[in-house]
């Protein structure tokens, strides 16, 4: 069992070299108020004066004190294991921060503790960085303790205003370790129920399973009082016990009273004042108790400690593997592997076959699909075929298309002019779609694989980003031109013989004007109705006979039929051509029909000024025909654009980049001079340091595992 504490010390040495705080080793943590007697207790355990003393907070850094029982006959073996020369004295010490130096003068040890404390913490500040001191002596019991700064309430002199918080945080950091035994120091001349040390211990160890209380200064209690009730646990019970000790007074310290003499005085006082419990108190009993508790605690903690070390070995092995081996010979093979890995990952992200699929947002090919079928589709659907097109625009287009002649028929040119104007509006959503896909292809660079290589080789990362960005920019104008051409193709030829346009039924309905004529003839007498019906039959007959002519030619035929209808009703040509008041029958129809209440803007005088009046039946008919034709044809073109633009983007941009990416990277990065390879494969200093730290930690963990395995082999577990 005695061998367990040296094994613990070995583990501490191993993990201290890598500064690991993730391994929580068993240890004894000394906690107490300022001037509670912590330093005296530790010096009594060692048997020598070696700790700094003075006013205020003297201990401002954790002091890890490893006491190693070393009889004189083992001194040589111990020094050889340390790789140091054998000193003449039987008591000696070493600091882990000073290599190859043995201290035999304990005053020099005190000065080094003070100097090392000031080096990191200054003259007044608190530091979390521990000082590790190993003391080898035939007078000590093998122990490991951590001395912490004393609890204080009010800053003195030039101490920081938050000194209480700093000390509290430091103490809580150490005693929160579930593998730590808390040594709570409390002076006997203070009410034990108000002990700050015990209060701190109860915060992290409410059941007291790992708390041992020490009652100091038993010789300074008021006359007529004693500490029997406290030492017996009647005031506040502590599971691991309460041990009373007697410290040297300040006068004894100034007079350099030997500790051996102080221990004899302690024993005599205990026998005199506490005879029934004297054997269970005093510094020697405290040392044996701490040794026993620590050994059993180490034995209990080792299984969980080994499991934790194995977990960390696996973690750090993975970490070291992720950093890769140091680049000794920077040949092009590694560069080609990284290029191939990046290109494959980039294409896989687009195709949706990447190993690490994003779950928080759409990316790669999925986002491109969303752009095509959601964003782009909604943008097209939001464009109304007749937006920005007013009645005045339509009437003006019709009149401008007839030149100096009055308009007898709806001219074909007006339809083409107006529908092209609407089709042109489809170009902007298409170009915006190209832009969105281009942005996503650029964004994929940061989401695809080879991320660890990018961190490891920042120069190579920059060059790859530059090459891909240049490739995408080079394809962007080509893709934009293709989208513009798709719209231009639709504008180049208005195909009124398109099957969807010709066979939709809308054209026949618009040309026959069935709804309009039926409305306008409701109040006419029967003969007139029959005559109108015969005129419509003539019109339909003409349409049937001219099924091969263009749709807009049918508009002309229909307009001619309506002119004939008005002439039959007694209307003169001038009233029809100029759009003035219609005949009496038409006027009656207009008054009774709600379809003639729309407002039309028509020019008067020189044609540059306008006034508002009701649409005439003919104007209403012409506008309705043009609007229906525009809407029908626009929807056909919009459907074509919605289908062809994504195909063009995939062909000219996405698929081209996928096919050419690796060859582009190889041409730009691999087929270069060797010295440029070296620059591209220059490791980040941060990665090199992290790899070194991870390797050192991995080695420390393997050593720790080996040490614990030796415990099992010697049946100490």
UniProtKB/TrEMBL annotation:
Q: What name goes with this protein?
A: dynamin GTPase
Q: According to its record, what are the GO cellular component terms? A: cytosol; microtubule; mitochondrial outer membrane
Name the CDD domains for this protein. DLP_1
In the record, biological process GO terms are: endocytosis; intracellular distribution of mitochondria; mitochondrial fission; peroxisome fission
Where is this chain's protein located in or outside the cell? Cytoplasm, Cytosol; Mitochondrion outer membrane
E.C. no = 3.6.5.5
User: Which controlled-vocabulary keywords does the entry list?
Assistant: Cytoplasm, GTP-binding, Hydrolase, Lipid-binding, Membrane, Mitochondrion, Mitochondrion outer membrane, Nucleotide-binding
Compositional bias annotation for Basic and acidic residues: 534-548
Recorded GO terms, molecular function? GTP binding; GTPase activity; lipid binding; microtubule binding
Concerning SUPFAM superfamilies, the annotation shows: P-loop containing nucleoside triphosphate hydrolases
Q: Where is the composition biased (Low complexity)?
A: 582-597
One Pfam assignment: GED
| Ranges for domain Dynamin-type G | 22-303
The reactions it catalyses are: GTP + H2O = GDP + phosphate + H(+)
């Amino acid at each position: 069992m005695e061998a367990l504490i040296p094994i613990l010390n070995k583990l501490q040495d191993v993990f201290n070299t890598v500064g690991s705080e993730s391994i929580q080793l068993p240890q004894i943590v000394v906690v107490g108020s300022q001037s509670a007697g912590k330093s005296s207790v530790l010096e009594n355990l060692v048997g020598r004066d070696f700790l700094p003393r003075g006013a205020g907070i003297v201990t401002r850094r954790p002091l890890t004190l490893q006491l190693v029982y070393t009889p004189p006959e083992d001194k040589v073996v111990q020094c050889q294991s340390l790789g140091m020369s054998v000193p003449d004295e039987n008591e000696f010490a070493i600091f882990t921060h000073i290599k190859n130096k043995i201290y035999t003068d304990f005053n020099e040890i005190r000065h080094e503790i003070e100097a090392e404390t000031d080096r990191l913490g200054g003259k007044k500040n608190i530091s979390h960085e521990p000082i590790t001191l190993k003391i080898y002596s035939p007078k000590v019991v093998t122990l490991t303790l951590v001395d912490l700064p004393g609890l204080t309430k009010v800053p003195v002199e030039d101490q920081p205003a938050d000194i209480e918080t700093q000390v509290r945080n430091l103490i809580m950091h150490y005693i929160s370790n579930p593998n730590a035994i808390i040594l709570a120091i409390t002076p006997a001349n203070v009410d034990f129920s108000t002990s700050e040390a015990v209060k701190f211990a109860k915060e992290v160890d409410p059941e007291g399973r790992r708390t041992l209380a020490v009652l100091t200064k038993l010789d300074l209690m008021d006359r007529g009082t004693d500490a029997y009730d406290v030492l017996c646990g009647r005031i506040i019970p502590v599971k691991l016990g309460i041990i009373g000790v007697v410290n040297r007074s300040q006068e004894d310290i100034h007079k350099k009273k030997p500790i051996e003499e102080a221990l004899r005085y302690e024993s005599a006082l205990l026998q005199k004042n506490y005879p029934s419990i004297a054997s269970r108190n005093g510094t020697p009993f405290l040392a044996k108790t701490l040794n026993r508790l620590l050994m059993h605690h180490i034995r209990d903690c080792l299984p969980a400690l080994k499991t934790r070390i194995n977990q960390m070995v696996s973690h750090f092995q993975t970490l070291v593997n992720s950093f890769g081996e140091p680049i000794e010979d920077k040949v092009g093979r590694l560069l080609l592997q990284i290029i191939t890995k990046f290109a494959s990952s980039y294409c896989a992200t687009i195709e949706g076959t990447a190993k690490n699929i994003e779950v928080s947002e759409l990316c790669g090919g999925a986002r491109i699909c969303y752009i095509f079928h959601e964003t782009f589709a909604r943008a097209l659907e939001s464009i109304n075929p007749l937006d920005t097109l007013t009645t005045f625009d339509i009437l003006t287009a019709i009149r401008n298309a007839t030149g100096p002649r009055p308009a007898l028929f709806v001219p074909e040119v007006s339809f083409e002019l107006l529908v092209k104007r609407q089709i042109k509006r489809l170009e902007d959503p298409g170009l915006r779609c190209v832009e969105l896909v281009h942005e996503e292809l650029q964004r994929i660079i940061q989401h695809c694989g080879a991320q660890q290589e990018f961190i490891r080789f920042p120069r190579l990362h920059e060059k790859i980003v530059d090459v891909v960005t240049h490739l995408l920019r080079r394809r962007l104008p080509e893709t934009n031109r293709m989208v513009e051409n798709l719209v231009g193709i639709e504008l180049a030829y208005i195909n009124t013989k398109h099957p969807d346009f010709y066979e939709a039924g809308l054209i026949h309905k618009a040309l026959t004007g069935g709804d309009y004529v039926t409305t306008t003839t409701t109040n006419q007498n029967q003969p007139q109705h029959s005559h109108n019906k015969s005129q419509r039959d003539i019109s339909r007959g003409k349409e049937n006979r001219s099924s091969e002519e263009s749709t807009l030619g049918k508009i002309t035929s229909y307009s001619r039929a309506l002119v004939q209808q008005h002439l039959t009703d007694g209307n003169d040509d001038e009233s029809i051509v100029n759009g003035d008041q219609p005949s009496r029958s038409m006027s009656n129809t207009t008054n009774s029909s709600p379809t003639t209440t729309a407002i039309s803007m028509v020019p008067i005088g020189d044609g540059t000024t306008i006034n508002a009046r009701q649409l005439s039946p003919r104007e209403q008919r012409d506008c309705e025909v043009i609007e229906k034709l525009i809407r029908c044809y626009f929807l056909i073109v919009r459907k074509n654009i919605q289908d062809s633009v994504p195909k063009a983007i995939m062909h000219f941009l996405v698929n081209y980049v996928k096919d050419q990416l690796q060859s582009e990277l190889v041409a730009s990065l691999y087929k270069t001079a060797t010295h440029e390879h070296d620059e591209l494969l220059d490791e980040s200093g941060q990665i090199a340091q992290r790899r070194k730290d991870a390797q050192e930690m991995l080695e420390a963990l393997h050593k720790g595992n080996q040490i614990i395995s030796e415990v099992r082999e010697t049946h100490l577990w």
